[in-house]
Write a structure and sequence with these properties.
Keywords: Flavoprotein, FMN, Oxidoreductase. The chain has 16 helices and 12 strands. The chain has a single domain (7-377), classed as Aldolase class I (TIM Barrel). The chain is of the alpha/beta class. The radius of gyration is 20 Å and the shape is globular. α1 packs antiparallel against α16 (331-362) and α15 crosses α16 (331-362). Bound molecules: glyoxylic acid. Glyoxylic acid is lined by residues 80, 109, 159, 276, 279.
Length: 387
């Protein structure tokens, strides 16, 4: 077993161990992938301010996210097809999150169902909802999430239409994979993955198959989204969903201060500044670039979180210092899951936590909740002047 010290180490192992179509699914942005790339490279433009001769003892990364105590202000983001990166992937990721003391978010497009994850965990998790045209399906899935004790609904607002990721089309992405010749050749080298999959029954979209009507190809994410997602989603519908849910609500996919103000106005508990990991509108600005203006516009009224591009504890610290109360990671833990299952997700969380803690110390800070812009050196034109 190689010595694993970075999220990138986990990524290399994930690539080796998971079937190409699922690794590529995780590692794609839409169209030219400009936004996907800039989500990470923009973090590199920001530098850290080293301080010395400051007491570094008794450091704390503990915080709260929407009123829940967390070991560090980070949540696992919803990722579609997680249970295809590794057998029973959602259950494994949720267990690693609960052991670490951070929230796990289950995607609507998961392989393990809401009920299945609830049966194999002890802490409440968050549930991410895509709004479908079929109201009965939506009512039903909200009721299922309530019954399973989910403690927040994460409503995704930036995916009514699926952004085109070329690799998924070229690979013929489905869950489970259709056994074409190229897929079979690739699967022949992924025996560890295959053994896991042979031992589980969880190989289909568990929240959908058996629960939704009129789906042409229930194994294909793109047919499902094309046929079912609600193109008419608007702020009135969001307000009605908030009523229906009646619990904590997080709105995901906000990239503009005007939308952030609308989210605050309807009384959501938090927003996630996000461009869906660069998987939706290619050409949009990176999430870290827009974060400061959104935090300035609504940070006193609503909890501002961010995702898209975080691959280290240093990235996390930069986002917190620029106004995020918490961050969400997607790929960073999926690499761990694809590499080593539950232990890999725990490893990803440990790596990020250690990087965050040591960076905080070397910047002369002891409390993650008190991080501010002063720990950073931000280029003057970082946010850019866009007209
Ligand atoms: C779904 O959330 C996706 O980005 O594929």
């Amino acid at each position: 077993m190689p010595v694993i010290t970075t999220i990138d180490d986990l990524k290399r192992l994930h690539k080796r161990r998971a079937p190409k179509m699922f690794y590529d699914y995780a590692e794609s942005g839409s169209w030219t992938e400009q936004t996907f790339r800039e989500n990470s490279t923009d973090f590199d433009l920001i530098r850290l301010r080293q301080r010395v001769a400051v007491d570094m003892s008794d450091r704390s990364t503990a915080a709260t996210l929407i009123g829940t105590d967390v070991a560090m202000p980070l949540a696992l983001a919803p990722v579609g097809l997680t249970g295809m990166q590794c057998a029973d992937g959602e259950i494994k990721a949720a267990r690693a999150a609960e052991k670490f003391g951070v929230p796990y978010t289950l995607s609507t497009m998961s392989i393990c169902s809401i009920e299945d994850v609830a049966a194999h965990t002890t802490q409440p998790f968050w549930f991410q909802l895509y709004v479908m045209q079929d109201e009965e399906f939506v009512d039903n899935i909200i009721a299922r999430a309530k019954k399973a004790g989910c403690s927040a609904l994460v409503l995704t607002l930036d995916l009514q239409i699926l952004g085109q990721r070329h690799k998924d089309l070229k690979n013929g992405l489905t869950a489970p994979p259709k056994l074409t010749i190229p897929t079979m050749i690739n699967l022949a080298t992924k025996w560890h993955w295959g053994l896991g999959m042979l031992q589980t029954k969880r190989r289909f979209f568990g929240n959908i198959v058996g629960h939704a009507k009129g789906v042409g190809d229930a194994s294909s994410l793109s047919s499902w989204t094309n046929e079912q997602f609600d193109l008419r989603l608007d702020w009135d519908k969001i307000a009605k969903l908030k009523e229906k849910w009646g619990g904590k609500l997080i709105l995901k996919g906000i990239l503009d201060a005007e939308d952030a103000k609308k989210a605050a106005a309807i009384g959501a508990d938090a927003i996630i500044v996000s461009n869906h990991g660069g998987r939706q509108l290619d050409g949009a600005l990176s999430a870290i670039r827009v974060l400061p203006s959104i935090a300035a516009a609504v940070g006193d009224r609503i909890e501002v979180h961010m995702d898209s591009g975080i691959r280290s504890g240093q990235d996390m610290l930069k986002a917190l210092a620029l106004g995020a109360k918490g961050v969400h990671i997607g790929r960073a833990y999926i690499y761990g899951l694809g590499a080593m299952g539950e232990a890999g997700v725990s490893k990803a969380l440990e790596i990020i936590h250690k990087e965050l803690d040591v960076t905080m110390a070397l910047c002369g800070r002891r409390d993650v909740r008190a991080l501010d812009r002063d720990v950073l050196l931000v280029p003057q034109d970082f946010e850019g002047s866009w007209a």
